[in-house]
Design a protein that fits this description.
Layout: H1 18-24, H2 30-44, H3 55-62, H4 66-78, E1 82-85, E2 96-99, H5 102-110, H6 124-131, H7 134-147, H8 153-166, H9 170-184, H10 189-201, H11 207-231, H12 239-250, H13 256-263, H14 274-286, H15 292-319, H16 326-334, H17 339-353
Antiparallel strand pairs: 1-2
InterPro entries: DNA_replication_prd_bac, DnaB/C_C, DnaD, DnaD-like_sf
Protein name: DnaD domain-containing protein
Family: Belongs to the DnaB/DnaD family.
């Protein structure tokens, strides 16, 4: 049970339509809701045009980046509950925001599209009414083009139920059909619902969030392919291997170059594996390496150390050589006499020969 304490003191109130709370608020994240509420409050205050708060004011008061404020207005405009007005570009954030009448919006657009109250499903009359809606009709036409045929009435009913169940806009439905057809070659509406359910579980509720997800997914697929090709694998990675490779970017914050540098070390082992590469990358991370250049410095130092060690070993072997040739013995004997003594011995030997 919820109830409110009564008070005789008032510092002003901001009336919010229940339509926003019940229908639109669950669609957005907390930041977008805060931006809407604070902006709506400013819209009710009697500010003149010169002193009216703007997006920068909202950014400062909420302690969030200006980019988040601008993204919020773009999101709410996509839902049709605000309109942005600017004499130039929307990119600089210097524009006005008009809050639409939610009661009129509900009566004209949302109420006619609600589920049949008696059956809990979309009936024939509901479908006829919805087909008169421009955005719904445009969505059905786009799906027809994607699957290269006309949607059956029961498929249209199913699509509208999916939109209602997962609170998804038309753009997401079109994107799901496009993904199913182009990536999997499947046109079945139940398969499309599975895709949308997965997106819903990942908090993807608008086209911008979906585009960001698909971009990241594409980058990861490139990562998996290049790593496996470097290791000489021809199979697809397992789910566990994908998680490990994801951790290299998400947990260790490594880029593609340093990951492929680690893969090049697989020539040092007869049995390369994802676990082997994972060990190399974790070792580099513990040493503070952040790029492939850092690993090259370590390789250069290791090579220099090998050269120094090889030189020391060669000199040691020379000093410790136990084998001596006739030259060594001759050198030892000659080192016992001075040059004058050697000359005297040589002359004495020659004199003896000629006697």
């Amino acid at each position: 049970m919820f109830y409110k304490e009564k008070s005789d003191v008032s510092f002003g109130q901001t009336p919010i339509d229940n339509i926003f709370i019940d229908i639109f608020m669950p669609m957005a994240n907390g930041t977008f809701v805060m931006v809407y509420l604070l902006g709506y409050r400013y819209s009710l205050e009697p500010y003149d045009s010169e002193n009216s708060p703007g997006n920068i004011t909202i950014s400062k008061n909420l302690g969030i980046p200006l980019s988040d404020v601008l993204s919020a207005w773009e999101f709410w405009e996509g839902k049709g509950i605000v309109k942005r007005h600017s004499d130039s570009s929307f990119d600089d954030g210097k524009y006005s925001v008009e809050f639409m009448d939610l009661k009129r919006l509900y009566l004209e657009n949302i109420k006619p599209h609600s589920l049949n109250s008696s059956t809990g499903s979309i009936g024939v009359n509901d479908l006829i009414q919805l087909n008169e809606n421009e955005s719904i009709r445009g969505m059905f036409n786009s799906v027809n083009e994607i699957i290269s045929r006309e949607l059956a009435p029961n498929e249209k009913q199913k699509i509208l139920q999916i939109m209602e169940r997962y609170n998804m806009p038309c753009d997401i439905i079109k994107a799901a059909y496009s993904f199913a057809k182009n990536k999997k070659g499947i046109k079945n509406v139940n398969f499309v619902e599975g895709i949308i359910r997965n997106w819903y579980d990942m908090n993807i509720s608008d086209i911008s969030a979906l585009e960001e997800y698909l971009k990241e997914r594409s980058e990861r697929m490139v990562l998996y392919s290049r790593v496996f090709r470097s290791l000489g694998f021809t199979r697809q990675p397992s789910q566990e291997e994908r998680k490990v490779m994801d951790s290299w970017m998400d947990g260790l914050s490594f880029d593609m170059d340093i990951i492929l540098k680690a893969c090049s070390k697989s020539k040092n082992t007869s049995n390369p594996s994802i676990a082997y590469i994972d060990g190399i990358l974790k070792s580099w991370h513990s040493k503070g390496f952040t790029s492939a250049e850092d690993t090259q410095k370590e390789d250069a130092e290791r090579e220099n150390q090998k050269i120094i060690s090889a030189g020391k070993n060669t000199q040691y072997q020379k000093n410790q050589n136990p084998y001596k040739t006739k030259f060594h013995y001759k050198e030892e004997r000659s080192s016992r006499y001075t040059p004058e003594e050697l000359e005297k011995i040589l002359l004495e030997n020659q004199r003896k020969k000629f006697k």
